[in-house]
Amino acid sequence: MKISGRTFVVSGGASGLGRACVREICAGGGNAAILDMNEELGSTLAGELGASAKFVPCDVSDTSSVAAAVQAAVAAGLILDKQRQPLALEAVDFVLAINVRGTLDVVRQALPHLAAAAPEGADGERGVVVMVASVAAFEGQMGQVAYAASKGAVAAMTLPMARDLSRFGIRVVTVAPGPFDTAMTAVMSDKVREGLRKAVEFPARSGRPEEFAALVRHAIENVMLNGVVIRLDGASRMPSKL
To answer: Highest taxon of the source (predicted)?
Structure first.
């Protein structure tokens, strides 16, 4: 994409890294919509850059403020879903509530019981948390913005959670499966299932639930597995679309 003649929406564009990006965009012949809460800095920057920059007050923690700012930004880009419609925030909230908040809630409710368990073995281990991410965390497909973000969050929390729980003798391991035969894939069209199968290098098939369970068992039994995200995908790499 060429910068010249295009308009870019820069969140936090009034200062720091965002400010530097605004200047670079305008220097390259582009236009910048500066979204920020700091009206003084934003207006000053827009004034310095002239017609190529526009300051738009915006609080990104307030959905209505974001909506108004985007509407005010000329030629603002939109994240689209598979139907080429703006990604519904309700859909994002639904997916994040299940895959991120739900995962964390289950873990936090179980942790007091794990921490209270008697330490076992020479290492004094008390337990292990095994979470499920997805290869979509690394190569999400078209229409998977919310899903990929949610599974990426699970992958990202693995190491800091392992560090937080290390003093209790509790390990954290995350499995990121590729295509597997599950109830979810069973309702997919033949075309989609075949596309998923072709993405797997070897073995040339989808994974089986018992193979996933075997890795989980190994994660439980191998005390050196900690703070790691393990791909279980037959060397598959998801294409942008099926």
So the answer is: Eukaryota
Q: How far apart (Å, rounded) are the C-alpha atoms in residues 206 and 143?
A: 22
- Do residues 54 and 101 share a domain? no
Q: Which residue has the tokens 């499920």?
A: 132
Identify the band that residue 80 occupies on the pLDDT scale cut at 50, 70 and 90. Answer: very low
Q: How far apart are CA 176 and CA 178, in angstroms?
A: 7
Let me know the angle formed at the C-alpha of 145 by 35 and 200, rounded to the nearest 5 degrees: 150
pTM of the model: 0.74
> Mind listing the pLDDT tens digit for each residue in 184-228?
777 777 777 777 778 888 998 888 889 988 898 899 889 999 999
User: Which of the residues are catalytic?
Assistant: 147
How many C-beta atoms lie closer than 10 Å to residue 146's C-beta? 21
User: Could you give the CA distance from residue 136 to residue 178 in angstroms, rounded to a whole number?
Assistant: 8
**Inter-CA distances, 131 with 16, 153, 156, 161, 227, Å:** 36, 11, 11, 11, 11
> In this structure, are 49 and 78 located in the same domain?
no
For 192, the domain range is 62-232
